[in-house]
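Two proteins were folded this term; both appear here.
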Amino acid sequence: MNADLHCHSTVSDGLLAPAEVVRRAHGNGVELLALTDHDEIGGLPEARAEAAHLGMQFVDGAEISVSWGDDQTVHIVALGIDTSHAPLVEGLAKVRGGRDSRAMSMAAELDKVGIHGAYEGALKYAGNPALISRSHFARYIVELGHAKDVKSVFDWWLAKGKPGYVSHPWATIEDALAWISGAGGIAVVAHPGRYRLTKAELREMLGRFKELGGRGIEVISGAHNPEMVRDFARVAREYGFLASRGSDFHGPGESYSDLGKVPDLPEDLTPVWSELI
């Protein structure tokens, strides 16, 4: 099945509206889609309605920002959630509530290195202070001509240890897993190959994730190279995780992969969608 269970719209930091994401996915041959905006479920009704119109299977999702260890951020994808579950709705709202204050701090740091007006510039792309993210800052910095693309901005200014990086307390892994479980969803570790964790730190995180009821891992991600796919296929086998597949699409020309244009899962793994449809 051509399933893409990780992508973003303008409701968080994507470039396309929810319905446009669905239409692009459908045009690319995606058969099962999950919209997983960052800490936000506001785009799901529009996306779900467009998927129904096109006759495409759709899963309600979100990507939850989680603080882990010593100032590390990991992302947990929630799939098949009940979007009316009050603790989930309230929890996501609380997580989003810190984005604007972090953005102001980021802008102040960037101003010190000669990138001025960054808050206003990022807000122009975000549209809503509660949704403002590093991607919106990156687009503004590209617009100014300080970098050739969004990835370069992260490498030089917005990653941990760089001038514009500001740490922020997100959800705890305990809270995130409780929200997802309570909402009847399946929790999946997003793009594990992207985290700056040692092997021991990653194993500690995965062990805790499983203890708390986490059930899946993205083996296939737009950010994963073939070696990472092999590594996380082994992890899925070892921990008994369901395997997920997602592009992490944010927009044309800005993402690692287009919707539905990532490799297939290894055949011996159990796909997460076996329990979603």
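Next, the second protein.
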Amino acid sequence: MGRAQNAARRARTLILGIMMGAMALILPQGAAAQNPFAVAVRVDDAVVTNYEIQQRIRFMQVLNAQGDLRDMAIEALVNERLQLAEAERLGTVATPEAIENGLVEFAGRANLGPEQFLRQMQSEGVSPETVRDFVANGISWRNTVQARFGSASRVTEDEVERELELGTQLAGGREVLLAEIIIPVTPENQANLESELARLGRDLNGNTELFSDAARRFSAAPTRENGGLTGWRPILELPEGLRDRFLSMGVGQVTSPVSLNGQAFALFQLRGRREVPTPPPVITEIDYVTIGIPGGRTPEALSEAARIHTAMDACNDLNGVIPGGFERISAAPGAIPRDIAVALAGLDDHEMSTQVTRNDGTVLLAVVLCDRVVAAPEGGLERVAQLMTGQRLTRYAASYLEELRAAATIQLGTN
């Protein structure tokens, strides 16, 4: 009985933090400096100006980006300063020819030629220099990552065979039944949410009834209505980092807190594991849509998500339902943000999840699964090798950038 009371008390503490976050008002930021060319951020010996931030914000608006665009613009520009400095140090800066080719490719996504695309951007308030810098920085960073980690990222035929063996024999023929508790990160709970969840997880470990009760009362995921149960799912549909945990856990065990892309933390309880007669094929890409809806998981935002979902039969219908109001992405499973990957794992084609949020919970990120692209092992070695290499490069690039940021001197508001 004492164990249940402890768990309930910790859960009440968590939900209080969530409620406080939902009630908090977003205060307007101070006015930007009058001089657009004044220094907004210093990054070692480089600077980011107010004008560059304004331009990047406008660029992201034209591209239908969602979230706190100012924070996103500053973070992107700071990263690009560090990436360009590293490219200059290693001699991997994009050549003029590569930039022009990159611009042709970028404009081609909008079915436009490069000059036509630049004119279109300029009519929207985005200068040609802003677009060229964006393309050039992306190419330079790709060159840098390839130069540093190209050799280390290559996979051998034996590694590909082992990956396929793991996918089709050890994991592909297995399904797991999970229960989940998902708690969004808010400014009020971010300091101690992970540690509180860790203690709650220890209290709930081994007790399925208590876990389901906590999920019904406190989880932010729609699965709370079913005691947190997600249904039987092939283990290959889960994010790569979680597969090994569920293969080694005992039934009733609870994971340590799992970060979902920094936006939420989750506890998962293993409820069952079973073999299936026919192993599923390897999932090489997942095609999905994200829709940013202001308001977080408020009734109004959830109602708008339901309206959109009702109005569509397939992902292609969204072009008529909310033209320009969504982002469609095709990515390897390992390259998908963890919170989105967890949401997708519970969906069938054209189903929608409303458990993901952004911007401290103020934006609901509705996620719609369009398709899972699969490749049978036979004849698919080259494709699997490319995916594995791409995933490794993505991980190397993320760690590389973290190291650069940690070693840099970044000063905000230095005019």
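The CA atoms of residues 34 and 50 lie 9 Å apart. The two ends are 60 Å apart (CA to CA). These notes refer to the second protein only.
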